[in-house]
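Example record

The entry below shows one chain as it appears in the dataset: sequence first, then structure tokens.
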Amino acid sequence: MQTLFRASDSQLLRNICNWLTGPARDCCAPNIVCNSADKDDNNGHIYFETIKNIKTGEIMTVDYLLPMESIMSTSQRRAILKHQYYFDCECSRCICPDNCRLLKCLSCNIGYIELDGESKESIWKCN
């Protein structure tokens, strides 16, 4: 077996994985991941691993973002994908409310404060 390339740079690895996963759809909550081999392994192999159960007929999904980008807000993730890959992400995580960033409403002590819209001028309101 011949090594075709070695992926040491994270950006290069991401681009290679995205190219190799052509049949996989982008999703900010993917069911497969692309990993390079352990640091002790000098073969330069890339592995695809499932991180969720995948049902028969279900589409494979992979996150096009780097790990640090994946934890960003919805608007930040979507901006990166738009800039680097020229599409608007419509995955389940991007179209649902960003519940990880909710704050307890101090006015009613029952609801949560969420951002109404994604622009800088958007207001926070109790749900």
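Notes for this example: The longest helix spans residues 74-85. The CA atoms of residues 26 and 96 lie 16 Å apart.
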